[in-house]
């Protein structure tokens, strides 16, 4: 190894700043040599031959890097006293003695520019007047921009007016208000960008200009996931005309859109981070929401509800709200997402359609019943003429066919009209106090001939002989006749029908059970649905529109009762009706509430689709 003097003499001629030092045990250094270039760099602040404390000497960053266990070391560090990065080489020349070379100043501006050009986003530097001082390569991919036509120019000199205003608006506001930074989501050329701009100031806090960056939301989603997701969510939800909100599992609003806030006469800031109670939601609604949302999170199922409100102009507004559980990647419930939509236009259309439908069926009733009445009158006349002229039974046979099919048409018309009235809520309900046992027994007796004609035995049984209760006699007649006609129609040869009444102080319990073809298990829920016909035409030919049982259920509902069905294929069906026993305010009991002629006609109409010669 060269001795120190020889080494120093040899390198003193090299035009690179260097210093040779000796380090002792108490963290002090003695300057053994220093060349002219080093003095030019540091400004004669370190003198040859003197001893300094490392903590107090300038450029200590270089001396702190000395490691006695390594022969030489190359580092790149920032030297605070000269405000620059330097590449430094530390060489151990003897025990406790080191030579430190300041080999080269690192052009940090060049490195920053290289870094900026390597980033995927659009980056720029502008002076306070909005002129571009520097841009990276990404910005030149636009159809209006090249590096050559940007430097020294403003947005207004580069872009069309509308785009220039969009780009300059945020920065001008930033400089005017003196804010440190501004960020936001902007759209340009079909893409969404997450933009950020910051003021550049000197040591006296004077504004020199701005520096900014725009990242493509989708391309940089992995790097800016959370911020981009939140901004995109806000952008999308605020442009949707429906009310949107998100609550966590504790009922705290974590997000809502502008429409939701405006519908509550609030801002988003008034709502997010608070509960329904915090924003003064009425107590009854709070309880309703809590019950709904706890059930949604517990069952992990959605809920659809409808409600209405009165707007400021007095108009009724209808809303449909859908609430669904929010699930994380592990299927754990984290809250409830709700979307509420104004369906007033749909409701208005439905009401208008309902009005048109009612008008249509009113006209239909008139158009069908008028010719049917003429047909019935003609039948009576033909029968009278036949009887007077002693014509054979052949005439009677054909008049019966005409009458029966006319009744079938009348039944279909009545069912259509009544189903429409029931759906519209305008079917009259006229209860009277009457003996329900006598009423139902008379109906059963009246249809015995139809049952016998089909080879079916009809059995009536009751636990009491008399029970006065309030019911609409005509509606109850429709209920019993429809169920009995079905029991006959779908029964088997030599079958049985049981009609059983079990009456207590509170309810009329009625069962109509047959030994017929039955109903498939997967169809039981559909039997009371309008226009759903559950037939097995191979086993039992039948006619029907799928309206009757729907009307039966609605008529039972009018009486405040319930109806359900139990059935098994090839075994039979049982319809069970429960109607609460009530009395009208009138003290009298109707003795002749249902005229015989009307009674017989209803049977003829209801049983018109059972082909029989009974008459």
Please outline the helices and strands:
Layout: H1 4-11, E1 18-23, E2 28-34, H2 36-42, E3 51-53, H3 60-63, E4 72-79, E5 84-94, E6 97-106, H4 108-118, E7 122-127, E8 132-135, H5 155-158, H6 161-177, E9 181-188, E10 191-201, E11 207-216, H7 225-238, E12 243-248, E13 253-256, H8 258-263, H9 268-271, H10 283-299, E14 303-310, E15 316-327, E16 333-342, H11 344-388, H12 393-424, E17 432-435, H13 436-446, H14 448-453, E18 457-462, E19 468-471, H15 473-489, E20 496-503, E21 507-514, H16 548-558, E22 562-568, E23 572-580, H17 596-606
Parallel strand pairs: 18-20
Antiparallel strand pairs: 1-2, 1-6, 2-3, 4-5, 5-6, 7-8, 7-11, 9-10, 10-11, 12-13, 12-16, 14-15, 15-16, 17-19, 20-21, 21-23, 22-23
Helix pairs in contact: 11-12, 12-16, 13-15, 15-16, 15-17
What does this 3D model show about the protein?
The protein is an alpha+beta fold and 615 residues long. Helices cover 37% and strands 28% of the residues. The protein contains 17 helices and 23 strands. The chain has helices at 4-11, 36-42, 60-63, 108-118, 155-158, 161-177, 225-238, 258-263, 268-271, 283-299, 344-388, 393-424, 436-446, 448-453, 473-489, 548-558, 596-606; strands at residues 18-23, 28-34, 51-53, 72-79, 84-94, 97-106, 122-127, 132-135, 181-188, 191-201, 207-216, 243-248, 253-256, 303-310, 316-327, 333-342, 432-435, 457-462, 468-471, 496-503, 507-514, 562-568, 572-580. The chain is elongated, with a radius of gyration of 47 Å. The model is unreliable at 536-545 (pLDDT under 50).
């Amino acid at each position: 190894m060269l001795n120190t003097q020889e080494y120093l003499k040899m390198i003193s001629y090299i035009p690179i700043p260097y210093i040779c030092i000796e380090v002792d045990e108490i963290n002090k250094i003695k300057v053994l040599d220093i060349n002219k270039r080093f003095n030019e760099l540091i400004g004669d602040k370190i003198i040859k031959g003197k001893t300094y404390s490392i903590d107090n000497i300038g450029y200590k960053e270089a001396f702190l890097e000395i490691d006695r266990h390594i022969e030489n070391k190359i580092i790149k560090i920032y030297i605070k006293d000269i405000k620059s990065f330097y590449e430094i080489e530390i060489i151990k020349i003897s025990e406790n003695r080191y030579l430190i070379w300041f080999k080269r100043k690192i052009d940090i501006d060049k490195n920053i520019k290289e870094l900026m050009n390597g980033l995927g986003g659009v980056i720029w530097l502008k002076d306070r007047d909005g002129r571009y001082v520097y841009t990276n390569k990404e910005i030149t991919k636009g159809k209006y921009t090249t590096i050559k036509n940007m430097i020294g120019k403003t947005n207004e000199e580069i872009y069309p007016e509308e785009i220039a205003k969009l780009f300059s608006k945020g920065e001008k506001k930033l400089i005017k208000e003196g804010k440190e930074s501004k960020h936001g989501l902007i759209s340009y050329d079909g893409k969404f960008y997450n933009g950020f701009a910051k003021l550049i100031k000197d040591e006296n806090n004077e504004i020199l200009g701005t520096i900014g960056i725009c990242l493509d939301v989708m391309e940089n989603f992995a790097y800016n996931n959370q911020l981009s997701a939140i901004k995109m969510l806000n952008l999308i939800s605020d442009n949707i005309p429906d009310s949107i909100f998100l609550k966590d599992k504790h009922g705290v609003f974590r997000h809502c859109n502008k429409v939701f806030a405006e519908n509550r006469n609030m801002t988003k800031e008034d709502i997010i981070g608070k509960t329904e109670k915090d924003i003064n939601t009425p107590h009854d609604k709070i309880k309703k929401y809590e019950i709904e949302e706890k059930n949604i999170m517990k069952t992990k199922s959605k809920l659809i509800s409808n409600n209405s409100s009165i707007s400021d102009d007095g108009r009724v507004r209808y809303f449909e709200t859908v609430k669904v559980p929010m699930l994380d990647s592990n299927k754990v419930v984290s809250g409830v997402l709700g979307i509420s939509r104004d369906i007033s236009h749909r409701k208005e259309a439905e009401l208008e359609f309902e009005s048109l439908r009612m008008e249509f069926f009113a006209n239909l009733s008139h158009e069908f019943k008028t010719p049917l009445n003429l047909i019935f009158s003609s039948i009576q006349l033909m029968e009278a003429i036949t009887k007077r002229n002693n014509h054979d039974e052949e005439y009677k046979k054909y008049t019966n066919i005409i009458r029966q099919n006319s009744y079938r048409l009348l039944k279909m018309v009545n069912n259509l009209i009544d189903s429409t009235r029931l759906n519209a809520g305008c079917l009259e309900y006229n209860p009277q106090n009457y003996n329900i046992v006598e009423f139902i027994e008379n109906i059963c007796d009246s249809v015995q001939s139809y049952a016998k004609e089909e080879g079916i035995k009809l059995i009536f049984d009751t636990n009491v002989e008399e029970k006065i209760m309030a019911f609409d006699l005509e509606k109850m007649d429709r209920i019993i006749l429809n169920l009995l006609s079905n029991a006959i129609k779908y029964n088997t040869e030599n079958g049985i029908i049981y009609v059983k009444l079990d009456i207590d102080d509170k309810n009329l319990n009625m069962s109509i059970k047959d030994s017929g073809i039955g109903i498939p298990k997967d169809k039981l829920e559909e039997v009371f649905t309008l226009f759903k016909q559950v037939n097995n035409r191979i086993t039992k030919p039948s006619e029907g529109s799928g309206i009757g049982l729907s009307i039966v259920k609605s008529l039972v509902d009018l009486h405040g009762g319930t109806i359900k069905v139990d059935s098994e294929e090839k075994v039979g069906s049982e319809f069970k009706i429960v109607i609460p026993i009530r009395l009208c305010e009138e003290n009298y009991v109707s003795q002749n509430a249902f005229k015989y002629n009307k009674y017989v006609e209803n049977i003829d109409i209801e049983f018109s689709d059972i082909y029989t010669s009974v008459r």
